Amino acid sequence: MALALSLGRRGQGTCWPNPAVGCVIVRDGRIVGRGWTQPGGRPHGETQALAQAGEAARGATAYVSLEPCAHHGKTPPCAEALIAAGVARVVCAVEDSDPRVAGQGIAMLRDAGVEVTTGVLRDQAARDHAGFFMKTEQGRPLVTLKLASSFDGRIATATGQSKWITGPQARRVVHAMRARHDAVLVGGGTARADDPSLTVRDIGVEHQPVRVVVSRYLDLPLMGQLARTAKDSPVWLCHGPGADVERARAWEGLGARLIPCAVHGVQIDTTDLLQQLGNAGLTRVFCEGGSALAASLLADDLVDELVGFSAGIAIGAEGLPAIGVLGLSRLEEAPRFELVETRAVGPDILHRWARPLR
């Protein structure tokens, strides 16, 4: 099952809105088939593994990181494919919360005489599929908030200089993280100040995530990197009802997709923002700031994972804080996360935190 989960992660960032499922087929103690959900969501992991196994699947055991689907979509149900292949046993990590499946895949297998075992490495599978589950159950994608800051929690000097607080090794890890998410998300202030490309570079990955910018008035540079490359890699602009009509037309002409969002106070409503992104099919979003957007997501309890890169440099109180105003008066109001990992990355420290599983 650990191998099936590992294979499934290969599909993360490329197969939305479908889940990234891994499958391993074993017969007589030997692996005869492996598969994971392919780019675009098809073929599914089980289909890939069965094709590799061929006749060796008959009487074998299939280890699947998510309950096999039971509904007819653009492809037949994976549960039916496993039955037709003659698989004798299916070991499933976690049940699917999609109402089109939700136990029906397991029931279909058992009704056909296939032995089914569930719950193997359930917690890890729940983490791996958290984005898909969130979109299915809550209508929004999982949000990972990444912040690269100085030892004292600053992301830029008072003059706005921010390149580079962390080293090249940390930036390379960030590119790998981008590649495993469906989209990279930044606020309009970050887009204006840094003119980022938000692409995956220098790690041998051809696939690019959707680049999402939150800009209430669409006051973004029409000659920046995002504008120049909007027809090469997707750019989605989330804006408020008061956005400039001419700028909207200009961005659409450049190839960007415009997504209207509700406004709360002076900012885009982050709850509606994520609902809109979920409606568009996204399951995993990698937010890279800035400080105002980070604060809004945290204040609205919409951050599921934190990734921090801390550098051995002190900028001082006059620098720009990594997270904007949260308006907390009591410590118990502060969002808390559980430590998942900490390690050195070049001269910097990576620390990763997650919301407790609910």
Automatic annotation (TrEMBL):
Assigned keywords, A-Z: Hydrolase, Metal-binding, Multifunctional enzyme, NADP, Oxidoreductase, Riboflavin biosynthesis, Zinc
Binding site for NADP(+): A148, W164, T190, D194, G290, S291, A292, L293, A294, A295, S296
One Pfam family from the record: RibD_C
Cofactor: Zn(2+)
Molecular functions (GO terms): 5-amino-6-(5-phosphoribosylamino)uracil reductase activity; diaminohydroxyphosphoribosylaminopyrimidine deaminase activity; NADP binding; zinc ion binding
List of residues binding substrate: S162, R178, L198, R201, E288
GO biological process: riboflavin biosynthetic process
Ranges for domain CMP/dCMP-type deaminase: 1-117
Record pathway: Cofactor biosynthesis; riboflavin biosynthesis; 5-amino-6-(D-ribitylamino)uracil from GTP: step 3/4; Cofactor biosynthesis; riboflavin biosynthesis; 5-amino-6-(D-ribitylamino)uracil from GTP: step 2/4
Binding-site list for Zn(2+): H44, C69, C78
EC number of the protein: 3.5.4.26, 1.1.1.193
Top-rank taxon: Bacteria
Catalytic activity: 5-amino-6-(5-phospho-D-ribitylamino)uracil + NADP(+) = 5-amino-6-(5-phospho-D-ribosylamino)uracil + NADPH + H(+); 2,5-diamino-6-hydroxy-4-(5-phosphoribosylamino)-pyrimidine + H2O + H(+) = 5-amino-6-(5-phospho-D-ribosylamino)uracil + NH4(+)
Cofactor note: Binds 1 zinc ion.
Membrane-traversing stretches: none
Active site: E46 (proton donor)
Family statement: In the C-terminal section; belongs to the HTP reductase family. In the N-terminal section; belongs to the cytidine and deoxycytidylate deaminase family.
Listed PANTHER family: 2,5-DIAMINO-6-RIBOSYLAMINO-4(3H)-PYRIMIDINONE 5'-PHOSPHATE REDUCTASE, DIHYDROFOLATE REDUCTASE FAMILY PROTEIN (AFU_ORTHOLOGUE AFUA_8G06820)
Function, in words: Converts 2,5-diamino-6-(ribosylamino)-4(3h)-pyrimidinone 5'-phosphate into 5-amino-6-(ribosylamino)-2,4(1h,3h)-pyrimidinedione 5'-phosphate.
NCBIfam families: eubact_ribD, ribD_Cterm
Protein name, UniProt field: Riboflavin biosynthesis protein RibD
Organism phylogeny: Bacteria, Pseudomonadati, Pseudomonadota, Alphaproteobacteria, Rhodobacterales
